[in-house]
Q: What sequence folds into this?
C-alpha cells in the first residue's frame, strides 16, 4: 500500500483567509483537534512574521503532538534562522518559479533562486531538521525552470519537493501528468501538492496529484485560505473514503465534524452547504423519489455512510416535496 | 469550435436543497436572470408535482425567454401527459438504471425500463417536443444495462441522453472515459452530464464530461441541490473562462454575480467563501507576499480578471498580515 500524508495548513494558509483572526488559544485547540483526527503534518506560519506568531509556533510545538509541526518559511536567511531557533520538526521553504512571480513578486532569476535556496537547505539539514522546498506557482512555471530548480534542491538534500497550484489554474489531468513526471524524475524524495480553488477544482486536483505520485497533500479545515481557498480536509477525506479507504486506517473520522464545526464557529462563518461530509445538509434527502428509496435503503442515494463520521441522516418526510404527488 | 449548452436546474435540482422555498415571483426572477446571463436550457420540475408547480411552469414558459424550458419528468404516462399539456420546449425524462435504484427506488428490470420509456419517447416526439432521456445513477450502473437502455432510447428517437452522477461517486477521469465511450457510440444524439458534489468533485467531473464529449452540462446557481448539491454555475463559468473562453462568447458574464447574489438572498444563505468568482473574497488578497505582488500586477496571483465579471479586487493592506514583517 502506498503511503500518504495529509498536511493541514489551517494555521498558515487558513490564516490568509480574510475572515480569519485566531486567538492563541484557538490555534492550540485547532492543532489538538487535527492531531486527534490523525493528520501527519500541521503547517504553521514563519516564526519571524511577528512576536505573536513566534509565540504561537512555540506553544504549538510544546503540545508535543504526534502530528509534525512544519513552519512555512521564505528562502531568506533571517527567516530560516528564526525558524531553526524554534523546536519545529521541519521547514517548508517556498520560492516563486513562474515568470509572473519572478517579475512581480521577488524579482530574482532562476540561477539566483538556486543560489538562495541551496545554502539554506544545507543549513537546515545540518541542523537535523526536515526540509521541503516548494516551487510556488509551479503550474505557470516553465518546465525547464521548474526542473532546474528542483534538480538543485534535490541535489542539496531536501526531504520533499512541493508543487503548489498557487493561482488555481490547473486541471486534474494536468496535475496528474506533471506530478507523474516529477515523481518519476525524483524517486527518492517526497512530493507534495497544494491546490487553490479559484476555478473550483481544488479537491479533484489534489486527488489527481496523489494519482500522479504525490505522497503529501495540503488541505485546510473547510478549505479556507487566500481568495476562495484550497482543498478542504473534508473533501480529501471524502475522496479517500470512497477511492482509497485503506489510507484512512490511521484516522479517527469521528473527529472531522468536530473540527469543521470548531473552525466554523471561531470564524463566525457557517460550514458551506457544498462541503462534503460536514455540511449540515450533506446527508439530508428531500425529493420524494429520494426519500422513498432512502427509507428502504440509504445506499440508494448515499455513498458515504454518516455513521462512520458520527453523523446522522435526515430524511425530509412530510414536506411539500414528499407529499402524495411527490415526483421530484 | 465545439458547441456547448449549459442547463441550469436551480428551479428543479435547486428546489431539492433543504433550504429552498422559492415563491412564484422568485422563480420568475431566477428564470429571467438565467436568460439574461445566456444559459441554453432552464430545467423546471414536473408539472404534475402540484398545482403550484404547474402554475410555475406555465408562468415561466409565458416569459418567452431565449432559454429553452425543459420539464424534469418521470417515465410515467400521466407525468408525461401533464408536461405535454404545458408549452415547455421539451421533456427531460429520467429513470434509475443502477441496481441500487432498481432495487430500492422503482423496482423495475432493465427490459421493463425500456418498455416504459420507448412509447413515452414516441409520444413526446409525436407531439413535436424535444426529449432527453437520463439514466439516473449512471456511474453505478452496469455498462451492459446502461448501453441496453441507451440503445433503445436512441433508437426511439431521443434528442439527447443524460449521464448523471447521482450520488457523487465519480472521478474526473471516470467521467471523461465513460462520456467518451458513450459519445462515440451515439454520435448523432446530444450528451448531457449532471454531477453531484458528495465527494467534492462536481465541477471537475462536469468539465471532465465536456472533455469526454458531452455537449450539455447541468449546473445550479451556487450549486444548490439534494444533499450538498451539484456543480455550480460560477464554477463551470470559471472553468470555461480559463480553459475554453470561446465557448463563453454568447454569455453576459457581468450578470453572474447578480444571480448568485439574488439566489443567496432568497435562500437566506450567504454565498460560500469557496465559490469561484462570486465569493465575496474571491478577489481578496491578504498575505504580504501576495498583496505586494498584486499591487504591482494582479496577474501575479489572479488568473480570472474581476473586471470581466463587473467585480472588484480587494487588497488587504494595513492588516497585521501585511505589516513591516509580513512574510506570509
Ligand atoms: O509552500 C507551498 O507549497 C504553498 C504556498 C502557497 O500557499 C501557494 O503557493 O499557494
Ligand atoms: O435527470 C437527470 O439527468 C438528473 C437527475 C438527478 O437529479 C440526478 O440523477 O442526480
Ligand atoms: Cu496557498
Ligand atoms: Cu441531481
A:
Amino acid at each position: 500500500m502506498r503511503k500518504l500524508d495529509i498536511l493541514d495548513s489551517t494555521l498558515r494558509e487558513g490564516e490568509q483567509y480574510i475572515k480569519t483572526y485566531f486567538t492563541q488559544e484557538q490555534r492550540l485547540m485547532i492543532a489538538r483537534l487535527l492531531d486527534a483526527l490523525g493528520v501527519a503534518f500541521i503547517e504553521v506560519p514563519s516564526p519571524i512574521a511577528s512576536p505573536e506568531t513566534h509565540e504561537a509556533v512555540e506553544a504549538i510545538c510544546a503540545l508535543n503532538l504526534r502530528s509534525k509541526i512544519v513552519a512555512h518559511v521564505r528562502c531568506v536567511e533571517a527567516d530560516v534562522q528564526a525558524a531553526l531557533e524554534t523546536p519545529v520538526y521541519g521547514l517548508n521553504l517556498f520560492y516563486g518559479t513562474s515568470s509572473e512571480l519572478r517579475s512581480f513578486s521577488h524579482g530574482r532569476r532562476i540561477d539566483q533562486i538556486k543560489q538562495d535556496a541551496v545554502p539554506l537547505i544545507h543549513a537546515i539539514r545540518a541542523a537535523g531538521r526536515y526540509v521541503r522546498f516548494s516551487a510556488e506557482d509551479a503550474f505557470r512555471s516553465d518546465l525547464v525552470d521548474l526542473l532546474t530548480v528542483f534538480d538543485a534542491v534535490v541535489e542539496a538534500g531536501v526531504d520533499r519537493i512541493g508543487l503548489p497550484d498557487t493561482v488555481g489554474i490547473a486541471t486534474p489531468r494536468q496535475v496528474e501528468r506533471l506530478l507523474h513526471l516529477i515523481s518519476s524524475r525524483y524517486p527518492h524524495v517526497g512530493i507534495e501538492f497544494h491546490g487553490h480553488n479559484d476555478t473550483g477544482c481544488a479537491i479533484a486536483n489534489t486527488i489527481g496529484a496523489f494519482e500522479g505520485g504525490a505522497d503529501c497533500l495540503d488541505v485546510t479545515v473547510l478549505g479556507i485560505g487566500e481568495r476562495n481557498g484550497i482543498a478542504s480536509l473534508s473533501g480529501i477525506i471524502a475522496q479517500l473514503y470512497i477511492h482509497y479507504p485503506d489510507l484512512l486506517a490511521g484516522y479517527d473520522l469521528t473527529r472531522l465534524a468536530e473540527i469543521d464545526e470548531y473552525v466554523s464557529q471561531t470564524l463566525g462563518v457557517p460550514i458551506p452547504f457544498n462541503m462534503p461530509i460536514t455540511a449540515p445538509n450533506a446527508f439530508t434527502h428531500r425529493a420524494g423519489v429520494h426519500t422513498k428509496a432512502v427509507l428502504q435503503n440509504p445506499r440508494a442515494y448515499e455513498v458515504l455512510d454518516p455513521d462512520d463520521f458520527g453523523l446522522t441522516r435526515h430524511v425530509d418526510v412530510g414536506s411539500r416535496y414528499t407529499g402524495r404527488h411527490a415526483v421530484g
Q: What stands out?
A: The first helix of chain B runs from residue 24 to 37. Residues 252 and 280 of chain B are 20 Å apart (CA to CA). Residues B 13, 72, 92, 94, 134, 136, 162, 164, 166, 194, 196 surround 2-oxoglutaric acid (ligand 2) (CB under 6 Å). Confidence is low (pLDDT under 50) at residues 322-326 of chain B.
